[in-house]
Amino acid sequence: MTAIPPLLPRIAHGDQAAVKLCIERYGGLIWSLARRLCPADAEDAVQEIFIDIWKNANRFDPEKSSEKTFVAMIARRRLIDRVRHAGRRPEQVGLADTPELSRPPGMEEATDVAIASRAINEMNPDQRRILWLSLHAGMSHAEIAEVTGTALGTVKSHIRRGLVTIREKLSMMGKETERRVAR
């Protein structure tokens, strides 16, 4: 398999064709991250991210990271800055705040969402962030490892333990509810 030549050095030297290729190559990744973290102003966020990429293209060092990691880190930093500036913190976004769950749920579903959200908020920040990148940003384990600088095995463990914790809390609450109903 042939390695894809990096575009950032070409962008740093003013190559306009490389700019277009960069947008085509990384636009989907950046758009999906922006849509999840800043849904109200994702388009503006994507534009700001690409501007940051152009401005920082000369700082890319293929010895330190892949081009995709470099782009993802710039996107992540810019999006976190936007979220913080707006007074929100990405780690504290609960499951109830996601678009898929914003419809009025049934009573049982609302309880499950509250339990899962509480379980996620009780996790350590690294595990919570890795689980969020997997579930909400749709990143693969390898991408998460690359972006966070965490070992791949650790990423897999955090995701697995996080999901097990959520399942256990849901299961415990389900048994507790059954006991109350049986009385």
Description of the molecule:
The chain is mostly helical. It folds into two domains: 1-88, Rna Polymerase Sigma Factor, Chain: A (Orthogonal Bundle); 92-183, Arc Repressor Mutant, subunit A (Orthogonal Bundle). 69% of the residues lie in helices and 0% in strands. It contains eight helices and no strands. Residues 88-107 have low confidence and may be disordered. This is Sigma-70 family RNA polymerase sigma factor. One of its GO terms (molecular function) is sigma factor activity. Pfam families: Sigma70_r2 (PF04542), Sigma70_r4_2 (PF08281). Belongs to the sigma-70 factor family. ECF subfamily.
Calculate the mean pLDDT score and round it: 78
Identify the overall geometry: elongated
**Helix content range:** 55-70%
What distance separates the N and C termini?
Answer: 65 Å
How much β-strand is present in the residues?
under 5%
Using only C-alpha atoms, the radius of gyration works out to 20 Å
* CATH architectural name of the largest domain: Orthogonal Bundle
* Count of helical stretches: 8
What letter string, H or E per element, gives the SSE order?
Answer: HHHHHHHH
Poorly predicted residue ranges: 88-107
Question: How many domain modules?
Answer: 2
According to DSSP, the number of beta strands is: 0
Please give the largest β-sheet. Answer: none
Q: Can you identify the CATH superfamily of the largest domain?
A: Winged helix-like DNA-binding domain superfamily/Winged helix DNA-binding domain
How would you classify the helix and strand content by structural class? Answer: mainly alpha
Keywords: Sigma factor, Transcription, Transcription regulation
Family: Belongs to the sigma-70 factor family. ECF subfamily.
Domain RNA polymerase sigma-70 region: 23-89
GO biological process, one term: DNA-templated transcription initiation
